[in-house]
């Protein structure tokens, strides 16, 4: 899947009312990865770390599904971690935030495909810069 295809697929995904004000990137002690803190809405205060992310196209290339793994680090009251991990609404909200993050990265040109290893690649990947 090339960059243009990914961008086209992301544009078809609904990001609801998510904006860059809806979340913030946060650092956690003893972690090399950034986490995302939700700043607005029912889940305000939740902190999540995204893991593996993939976009799966349908055979006709008309639709796509964003799949991702995550670790919920903090849940806002009255919710708890076990409840939110099973919540379809919460999972959809995380998907909307992730879609916005990915689309924003494409819009700014600050993204990278593939792993962080230093092996040379032939996939024309670009580094994510902050």
Write the layout of secondary structure elements.
Blueprint: H1 3-12, E1 23-27, E2 34-38, E3 47-57, E4 64-74, H2 81-86, H3 88-108
In brief, what are we looking at here?
The chain has 130 residues and is an alpha+beta fold.
Shape: globular
Radius of gyration, in angstroms, nearest whole number: 15 Å
Summarize model confidence as the mean pLDDT: 80
What level of helicity do the residues show?
Answer: 25-40%
Note the total helix count.
3
Number of DSSP-assigned strands: 4
Distance between the termini: 25 Å
Low-confidence stretches: 119-130
**Strand ordering within the main sheet:** 1-2-3-4
Question: What is the total number of structural domains?
Answer: 1
* SSE succession: HEEEEHH
**Major beta-sheet overview:** 4 strands, antiparallel
Name the structural class: alpha+beta
Binned strand content:
15-25%
Task: Please describe what this structure looks like.
A four-stranded antiparallel sheet has the order 1-2-3-4. The radius of gyration is 15 Å and the shape is globular. It is α+β, with helices and mostly antiparallel strands. The chain has helices spanning 3-12, 81-86, 88-108, and strands spanning 23-27, 34-38, 47-57, 64-74. The protein contains three helices and four strands, in the order αββββαα. The longest helix is centred in the last third of the chain and has 21 residues, at 88-108.
Key traits:
130 residues; alpha+beta; four-stranded antiparallel sheet; disordered C terminus
